[in-house]
Amino acid sequence: MSEINDKVTNEKKQIVLSGIQPTGTITLGNFLGAVSNWGKMQEEFDSIFFVADLHALTVKREPAEFRQACMSFFAQLLACGIDPAKSVLYFQSHVHEHTELQWILNCNTYVGEASRMTQFKDKSAKHADNINMGLMDYPVLMAADILLFRTSLVPVGIDQKQHLELTRDIAVRFNNRYGDTFVVPEPYIPATGAKICSLQDPTAKMSKSDPDANAWVSVIEDESSVMKKFKRAVTDSGNDIVARDDKPGITNLLTIYAAIEGKSVEQAEKEFAGVGYGTFKTAVGEAVAEKFRPIRENYHRYLDDKAYLAEVAREGARKASAMGSRTLAKVKRKVGLVSFDR
Ligand code: TYM
After folding, report:
1. For residue 292, how far is the Cα from the chain centroid?
2. How far is the CA of 20 from the centre of ligand 1 (A)?
3. Does the beta carbon of 223 lie inside 6 Å of ligand 1?
4. Ligand 1 contacts CB of residue 151 (under 6 A)
5. Is 126 a catalytic residue?
6. Cβ of residue 160 lying under 6 Å from some atom of ligand 1
7. Could you point out which of 26, 154, 279, 282 has its C-alpha 20 to 30 Å from the C-alpha of 164?
8. Predicted local distance difference test score (pLDDT) of residue 251
9. What ranges in the chain are assigned the alpha helix state H?
């Protein structure tokens, strides 16, 4: 199970990079907006994916639970098809170059830019008792994650678009000030699935930290629970199965179905024309449960194999560190830090 090769250290191909915070479990939103695309892109690009454990520390965590969640996320990513023979996969905190680069980028980012970020404002409102420095500095760490490698494409959901724009601004500013250093990355946002909404409030994003467990489904959830949540999903008035602004519930379910089945929303509308809401919700639930079955099964297998998880994580961190240290050395030189050949 542990064939790990060095393919990704060849920097000639375009680099794809993305991360996920280990909070809760990987939801349908994370899967359709990001992780399923990571799996597809690793076939074509040099791919780097990580568990963004340092990002998750911006909110208070119980240490033992957090450690478990980090391991669980690592196993969930493998179960979702991230293949260590094709991608570099690691824990962000195991590669110190991320935070080292962050410091230098901090000195090239304005407080005004960071404090304008929508997620900073939302999270500050949600955690008013813990508006820590990390919360505001979060997008600069994200910029460091991306710019540490010669990343061209960043597969994310629409909610990360603003952070990507800041990353691009920082990269361009640095390149103008110090000469060509960073590749300016592009977001890769899927046409269908970029924003999956809550099953209970289809005007809000599906979030893994939503305390209402009926609002989301997880990739490792058992089939009966997935079906129950879809049967309870909030729909709209009327009985047409069409995607329209005044029908956010039905639009969300059509989007989920289309993204899971690899179809367009129009095709999904045609498929369910004339069908009742109840039958439609069951069909969407079944499609999701079917997609998640192998993920759930593989997840338990991976989670039980701690030696394998450690081997993959160590090897991933080693490769990421080798690649990142080259960029970091270049950046240090550019800003005028003294270095001696080692
Ligand atoms: P996170 O952990 O909140 O989410 C992981 C990925 O899932 C996407 N996503 C969604 N897509 C569609 N519908 C939804 N309801 C939905 N909810 C979440 C997110 O857009 C994301 O792509 N800051 C990042 C993690 C990160 C990162 C990075 C990403 C850290 N460093 C560098 C890219 C590059 C985050 O909190 O994602």
Report:
1. 17
2. 6
3. no
4. no
5. no
6. yes
7. 26
8. 98
9. 28-30, 36-41, 53-56, 63-79, 97-106, 111-115, 118-126, 133-147, 161-178, 223-231, 248-261, 265-271, 277-304, 306-335
Q: Give residue 56 CA to ligand 1 midpoint distance, Å.
A: 12
Ranges of each domain in the chain? 15-193+306-335, 213-299
pLDDT at 342: 62
Q: What is the DSSP string of 131-169?
A: --HHHHHHHHHHHHHHHTTTEEEEE--GGGHHHHHHHHH
Identity of the amino acid at 307: A
Task: State whether CATH 3.40.50.2300 applies to domain 213-299.
Answer: no
Contact 254, 269 (CB under 8 A): yes
Task: Pick the atom of ligand 1 nearest to 197's CA.
Answer: 15
Mutation test residue for ligand 1: of 156, 188, 251, the one with most atoms within 8 Å of CB: 156
Encode pLDDT of 144-157 as tens digits: 999 999 999 999 99
The pTM of this model reads 0.94
Q: Which of 13, 205, 228, 334 is catalytic?
A: 205
- Contact in structure between 46 and 38 (CB atoms under 8 Å): no
Is 40 catalytic? The answer is: no
Would the CB of 76 count as within 6 Å of ligand 1? Answer: no
Which two three-digit tokens encode residue 3?
Answer: 């064939």
Task: Give the pLDDT score at 186.
Answer: 97
**How far does residue 30's CA lie from ligand 1's centre (Å)?**
7
End-to-end CA distance of the chain: give it in Å, rounded.
37
pLDDT in tens, 45-65: 999 999 999 999 999 999 999
Tell me, using a 6 A CB cutoff, whether residue 92 lines ligand 1.
no
User: For ligand 1, is residue 52 a contact (CB within 6 Å)?
Assistant: yes
Give the strand pairing for 87-91 and 151-155.
Answer: unpaired
Copy the structure tokens of residue 145: 């994650």
> 10 Å Cβ neighbour count for 79?
22
